[in-house]
Amino acid sequence: MTAAIHELMDFDEVLEKFDPVMGLEVHVELATETKMFSTSSAHFGAEPNSNVDPVSLGLPGALPVVNAKGVEWAIKIGLALNCTIAESSRFARKNYFYPDQPKGYQISQYDEPIAYNGYLDIVLDDGTEWRVEIERSHMEEDTGKLTHVGGQSGRIHGATTSLVDCNRAGVPLIEIVTKPIEGAGARAPEIARAYVTALRELVAALGVSDARMDQGSMRVDSNLSLRPIGQEEFGTRTETKNINSLKSVEQAVRYEMMRQAAAIVNGEEIVQETRHYQELDGSTRKGRPKESAEDYRYFNDPDLPPVIAPKEWVEEIRATLPELPWIRRARIQAEWGLGDAEMRDLVNVGALNAIIDTVEEGATPDEARAWWGNYIAAKARETDTELSAMPITPAHVARVIALVKEGKLTTKLGRQAVDGVLAGEGDVDEVIAARGLEVVRDDGAIEAAVDEALAANPGIVEKYRAGNTKVTGAIVGAVMKATRGKADPAQVNKLIAEKLA
Ligand code: ADP
Ligand code: MG
């Protein structure tokens, strides 16, 4: 444990004495094919140092060329965040040395960002809305990645070797910076989580990033300061880095509130510094003192011309914006007449988008909910996979639903068809053909099986004729067995009733 309990102030006590001010900086890696200023692949997971080129390695004389897709997607994000899009913006050099950045500077944007002055309306757990104001959303490039070997849990401290992988160097990055969030009080931690959640959902819906916090394609730094209640002037902030889950975003803010409050009442001065979030115990640990903007010696990058975004182009991009996730959710909830709790369940199992898409493929909302929310969700849990990552599409599920409705599959056979698709045996019709799943429609074969089952179970026939019509389960079971599960139970029941009438 880095901090003993007495070094933290009780959360409620913090709120009696202090007012938190928070600022969130979120980095989003764009899922473009190539890097921001060169033609190497920008994809994650390749062999170390295989996605590199003279530009991303910073070799002398190599010149950057701007990735148009990267600019388009930066504008798309800016528009979705209700920002003003600059008709002309600039790239600047942020100068600092680090081994994962061979050029000695990072290309970023400084005083002329491509998007600024926006906002994102988020919904908190109790349903109230909160507007997070956006200062800027600018383009930059990612750095490489260092792997420290020989120390504890991959940290540089105590390491014997450090490895540099430049695959990520130059991958397009968007940095979204909020204005100071004031007046949040006790809700500051919740707002931080809800904001990052909404942002993640937003960029995923825009199709510009996979926004995976676990893989580093979405990264959050949280700035926090406290000021005594009633004081207008902001206190000194710390900036917590290394936050890699939504839960941790909330905890990092909460922890800093409790830590800073305890330090202030102890007479310690808060220094502007970066801190590192500790996944193990939810604390933050002192990092380096924070550089100020002057230390970076920003200047316009002479290798790159201004980025010009004509109004017509911006409007074209605006027209491609999809329905925003929370607006889509509200619309669906109203259209399908779902209660808040039901809606939350769907969102929580991660099934909502799949269900909506399945309905768009022709299923009814109830059918789509039943298949995704029950059978496929259970399979996902069994294999510890996120529902959205299951290898089955809404079109597959809609096809199964249609075949069940037409009576060509029973629910049970439909599940087997789903199993086949999940096992990679092909699409629904291919699985049905290969596994021989279609319902037996041949009345003759079913009738013969019913006759046989009745003849083999005279006791049941007798009970039935004596008025106990609930005893037919064993007969149906025998018919199902004889037809290897392919008879339609409704048809079997009807035949039994006819024969025994
Ligand atoms: P830096 O380059 O130092 O990271 P940025 O301007 O990129 O600075 O981001 C700072 C973030 O912290 C912004 O979200 C800003 O709103 C917020 N912020 C600025 N001052 C304070 C403060 N005193 N307390 C809390 N947050 C602050
Ligand atoms: Mg910053």
Question: Explain this structure to me?
Answer:
It is built from 16 helices and 16 strands. With 501 residues, the protein is α+β, with helices and mostly antiparallel strands. The protein folds into 3 domains: 11-315, no CATH class; 325-435, no CATH class; 443-500, Arc Repressor Mutant, subunit A, CATH 1.10.10.410. The chain has a 9-stranded mixed β-sheet. The protein has a 3-stranded antiparallel β-sheet with strand order 5-4-15, with no helix packed on it. Strands 3-16 form a two-stranded antiparallel ribbon. The longest helix has 20 residues, at 246-265. The chain starts with 10 loop residues before the first helix and ends with a helix. Bound molecules: adenosine-5'-diphosphate and magnesium ion. Adenosine-5'-diphosphate (ADP) binds next to strand 1, strand 10 and strand 11. Adenosine-5'-diphosphate binds at residues 21-25, 135, 177-180, 223-225, 234, 237, 239. Pfam families: GatB_N, GatB_Yqey. Keywords: ATP-binding, Ligase, Nucleotide-binding, Protein biosynthesis. One of its GO terms (molecular function) is asparaginyl-tRNA synthase (glutamine-hydrolyzing) activity. Belongs to the GatB/GatE family. GatB subfamily.
